[in-house]
Every structure is written in structure tokens, then in C-alpha cells.
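User: Predict the full complex structure for these chains.
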Amino acid sequence: MYAQLVKSEGAKPREEMTPEEIAFQERIDRGEKIEPKEWMPEGYRKTLIRQIGQHAHSEIVGQLPEGNWITRAPTLERKAILLAKVQDEAGHGLYLYSAAETLGVSRDELLEKLHSGNMKYSSIFNYPTLNWADIGAVGWLVDGAAIMNQVPLQRTSYGPYSRAMIRICKEESFHQRQGYDIMMKMAAGTPEQKAMAQDALNRFWYPALMMFGPSDKDSVHSAQSMAWKIKINTNDELRQKFVDQTVPQAKYLGLSIPDESLAWNEEKGGWDFSEPDWSEFFAVIAGNGPCNEERLGARVKAWEDGAWFRDGLMAHAEKAEARRRAARVAAE
Amino acid sequence: MSSQWPLWEIFIRGQHGLNHRHVGSLHAPDAEMAIRNARDVYTRRNEGVSIWVVPSNAITASSPSEKGPLFEPSNAKVYRHPTFFDIPEEVGHM
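Assistant: Here is the predicted structure of the two-chain assembly.
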């Protein structure tokens, strides 16, 4: 759901598949992993580049709303923890970019597509983090929702993607726990602090639900992606699981979920809840969220401001290599 | 647009006594920076005691499409596995 709207290509009924495509599908059905140099349908490759790329971009852009609070964390310990968390997000982005590159796309190409707006990142990072309680809410809800989606993706059919997800999942529960820890502190604090925690939950609840992508009935590309096992659960399944997990956690904090229709449904063994406002979701994805411009602007600025440094390191590496070569020649 | 840093494959020895194992790849201008970056990207939680970095283009890989003929010879030699031989129970553990 860090990849919310991934267009799947090349959906085909079995009778129209080539023998190669049938053999490929059978490998996936047997649970075999597909590795970089092996034959794969062009649609599989393209869809994966889109999905892994979107996922990587989300990790990188996701550093911005939290990085915003590193210098203003309330204690030195909180600051060190947040710094470590944001550093993890950078690492997650790098694992995923590497996985995408095994499909034949270059890192520069992926970054260019992010910076020009041709590739998306998760809608959630286009909402502002206004105060410290928001950092708690982001860890608890946003990383909580991310884990929901990433745990099943550890079993995805593409080897490098699956291995990246395994590494990411190992690190992700630290993120959610640090967020919940902030929320516990705030919710058990002064009435003002508790009100801040409630306000953060109010603002992040529906954007967090949107992270799973549109409702299944509007999710036209799911079927092919599920056949290829690059998507394991439907959007609605994961959203339901997230709500069921989060409601008791909010209750423990003494906070209320901002949904008047929230009700336990004995029959399905889960909570009934209100859908987010999907017109807002599509507006944010299209670039009209509260922080789209700021996020992409900061991202492009960091890339451009760092150009002299990247070039400098490369120039140093090339000179050092030339000196070594000259020394070798002289020695011979 | 500046030129992209070369790609490196990263191998990490998790504990003393184990082999280095491939963990992923990253971009870096040279080997020294690749090791520094690998430290930050792949060992943030004490995952290693040693790092190898290898330029990705220095690796030669077997071809997936020749998997059959390449590995077939050993398939036919089941006697290489100790379980091929029946040792009477009274002989004891062997």
C-alpha cells in the first residue's frame, strides 16, 4: 500500500497465453521465486518496476514529514530514536531501488520519474506533521498500515523484492512501537497532551485507511497482480485487518476513533467502519494534497543541491583509480 | 544530469566462522565508499563482522536458461549421497 494505484499490464486469459507465459504462470503457482535474469512476461516486469519503484519512492519521501521533527524532538532520547527511524526509511528505499534495478531500470531513471511526477509515492506523505503527537500517530498508524501490507509481500513471487521485504519487515516493528510509545506518553500526559494525541488520531485516521488503496470494486488491476503474486491480499482485506488491529490499541490509549459508524460486527468477527473520502484520495494522488508541492520540492532540491557532492566523490574516485593505474604501470 | 555511481554487490559475514553472504547491492563512487555505505545500509543492527564489496559488472553468472544441462550431471549420481547405501542396523551408526 506504499504502492496504492499500480497499473497492471498484460492481463490475459489463459487460452491467449503463449507456452512461455503458461510455463511462467505455472512456476508462480508452484510457489517458485522468479529471479532477475530469468524469462518473464514484459507486463510482469513493467508492473513490478512500477510497484517496487512506487514503494521505494514512498520510503524516501516518507523521511520528510518525520525528518521535519528531528531537531524539535522533546528529549535527546526521542531525537536519537527518530533519527534512527528516519535512517531506516532511507535504507528501506535503497533496498527497494536495488530490487527494482534488477529488472533493468536504472536508479537515475527511477529518480527522474519521481522528480518529474511521472511516478507516484504513497498519498499519506502529502499530509503535514503539525506537532509532536503527529510523529506518534505516523509511527503507530502509518507504519502499522505499512506492516499490514509488507508482511504478506515477503512471500511475493519476485526474489529480490521478497528478500527486500524480509529485511524491511524485520526493522518495521521498531517503527510502529516507537510511534505507539509516543502516543502512550501523550495520552497519559496532561489534558492538553491527550487532546493533541486525539487530534493527531483524528487527522491521520482516514489518510491511513486510504493507504491500502481504493476499494476492491474499484481496483481494476488487482486480479492480474494477484495471479502473479506481486499482490497477496486485496485492498479491502488489508484495510479490515488494520482496523481490527487498531481499534483495541486506540481503546487502550483512551482515544476514540473518529468514526461514528464504527461498530463491532459479530457475524464477520470484525469492525464495521466508514470508508474514507475517495475523492480526497484521488485528489491527493493527482498532486493536489496539502503538501504535494512541498514534498516533491524538498526532494528535488535535495537531489540538485547534492549534485556537486556526488560529482566530487566520483571525480575523486576516478583520479585515485588513475593514480593507482599509473603506479602499477611504473612498477612494471 | 550527472553520471550514476557504479553498482556494487555487498557480501557480509554475519558471525565469525560463517561464510560471507550476498545481502544486496548499492551505488558508490569507489570501493572504499561502497564499504562505508554498506555499513550504513546493511549493518545498522550489528548484522556483520566483515564486509566484501564487488563491482557488479565483475560478476559472471551462470545462465538461467542453461540450468538444466549445467546441473544435470549431478542429478544422475545419486550414489554421492550417503543415503544411497543401506547399512545393516547391527553395524551401528556410520
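The CA atoms of residues 20 and 29 of chain B lie 22 Å apart.
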